[in-house]
Design brief:
Blueprint lengths: L2 H13 L4 H24 L5 H34 L6 H15 L4 H21 L5 H7 L2 H31 L3 H14 L1 H32 L6 H43 L2
Helix pairs in contact: 1-10, 2-3, 2-10, 3-4, 3-5, 3-7, 3-10, 5-6, 5-7, 7-8, 7-10, 9-10
Length: 274
């Protein structure tokens, strides 16, 4: 992996992410997922810690399957663009309909793992409420909630890793489980250092934009200090969510474009290897 190769991959993925058609499709999908986040945020206004935790992370894992489907469409369209073929989203959607439906099931293990961890955390919180011995369990078993929350954060990272490495495999190779898992294993085990570098490069625009818009959204939230009821919070964050997702959309497109570039580069290098 050379700097020139990374430069070419980055520039091509970046330039081909500046498309109004891609932006419009991705914005609609992100906005729908944003509605789910806003709804859960409204439910969590007066909820306890355990329920609020679920309403914070659950939309992310529920949206993972939707992002995977979106990534499949973007990568298949991008694959035709790079090869200078005439590409239309209508054709891509018609040819990819089975993939879009089947790919949702790849997110089911993440959702089940999160629900299991969330329920396990609830058990430890209940133990702390037992009269007399509850504080004792809270002190002795204080490491358990820490490990559970750490595992939840690890699941969030694993979600982005799967979206980066799994999406191009499914988009270009189909839903055959043996093929998908073999391709994914070869891709991840071939060169961990290169995979990590490519993954971090794909995240750079997304993290920078997300940091900026999240900070702006937080500052906006501090302005409306009187918005304490759920309806006010939902309406406020709904109208903030629209420009939030509009600004975030190009970096999401770049993420999947660069994922396709990384996968094709790894495949070509594997074919050239003796």
């Amino acid at each position: 992996m050379t700097f020139t190769a990374i430069q070419q991959m980055f520039n091509r993925a970046f330039l081909l992410s500046l498309s109004f058609k891609k932006w419009l499709l991705s914005f609609v999908v992100l906005a729908l997922c944003g509605v789910l986040v806003v709804f859960c945020r409204g439910l969590a206004v007066h909820a306890g810690y355990w329920v609020a935790l679920s309403l914070t992370f659950l939309p992310l894992f529920l949206s993972a399957g939707v992002f995977l489907s979106l990534g499949i469409v973007l990568i298949r369209y991008y694959h035709d663009e790079v090869k200078k073929k005439e590409a239309h989203f209508k054709w891509v959607l018609q040819k990819s309909w089975d993939l879009l439906i089947g790919s949702v099931y790849f997110s089911v293990p993440l959702i089940l793992c999160y629900i299991l961890l969330w329920m396990l955390l609830g058990v430890f919180l209940l133990l702390q409420q037992i009269p007399g011995i509850g504080p004792f369990f809270g002190v002795i078993l204080s490491f358990a909630p820490f490990l559970i929350n750490l595992a939840i954060l690890f699941l969030c990272v694993a979600t982005f890793v799967l979206l980066f490495f799994l999406t191009p495999v499914v988009a270009l190779k189909g839903l055959n489980r043996n093929v998908v898992f073999n391709q994914l294993a070869q891709h991840l085990q071939g060169d961990p250092f290169s995979n990590l570098i490519l993954f971090m490069i794909a995240l750079i625009p997304l993290v920078l934009v997300l940091l900026l818009v999240t900070t702006a959204a937080y500052l906006t939230g501090t302005i409306c200090s009187e918005c304490n009821d759920a309806l006010s919070v939902v309406l406020q964050w709904f109208f903030v969510m629209l420009p939030f997702t509009a600004l975030l959309t190009p970096s999401v497109i770049f993420f999947f474009n660069f994922a396709a570039e990384s996968y094709v580069w790894q495949r070509k290098r594997g074919e050239e290897a003796p």
